[in-house]
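ok, trying the design again with the full structure, not the truncated one.
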């Protein structure tokens, strides 16, 4: 699946760029997993290892990790780099703030 297909695979799509060696990314893993379970069937969530997807990261302008990109109907609506609380991330996905 290409990145363009990925971001158009659902009405709402969250993409996280991470690395296995990144301590901030590791802290976010259980948060993203919890959100994946909470929003199953409502939001597509993709996690891309930046080391294995460097061209894609470059294409979308990701240079720091973790970086979250939120798409609605294939258009980016929000971007965040760094750790964040589960409630704040969930609120962004749901369009609450």
């Amino acid at each position: 699946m290409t990145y363009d297909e990925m971001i158009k695979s659902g009405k709402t799509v969250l993409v996280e760029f991470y690395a296995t060696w990144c301590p901030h990314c590791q802290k976010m893993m259980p948060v993203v997993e919890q959100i994946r379970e909470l929003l199953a069937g409502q939001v597509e969530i993709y996690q891309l290892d930046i080391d294995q997807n460097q061209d894609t990261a470059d294409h979308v302008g990701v240079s720091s990790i973790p970086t979250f990109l939120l798409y609605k109907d294939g258009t980016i609506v929000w971007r965040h780099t760094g750790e964040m609380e589960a409630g704040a991330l969930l609120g962004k996905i749901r369009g609450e703030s």
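Keeping the full-length input from now on. Residues 23-38 form the longest helix (16 residues).
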